[in-house]
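Late entry, zinc ion complex.
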Amino acid sequence: MNTYPVTCPTCFEEFEVPLPAVTETPSEVDYDCEICCRPMRIFFENEWDEVTASAVGIHD
Ligand SMILES: [Zn+2]
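Prediction complete; structure with ligand written out below:
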């Protein structure tokens, strides 16, 4: 399975997240940081059949 590095918006540590299939993008998921365990939202996008991921913090 392919993974992609994202930077946690809370602790700014980088970690790898598993990527969905290209046909399942664009999409977004809730994810807990592997370092600080804070929740974030990860957006998967498709650029020229390459899936990329970016993390956005959840403020509640
Ligand atoms: Zn974190």
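Strands lie at 3-7, 14-18, 27-32, 39-47, 50-57. Will revisit in the morning.
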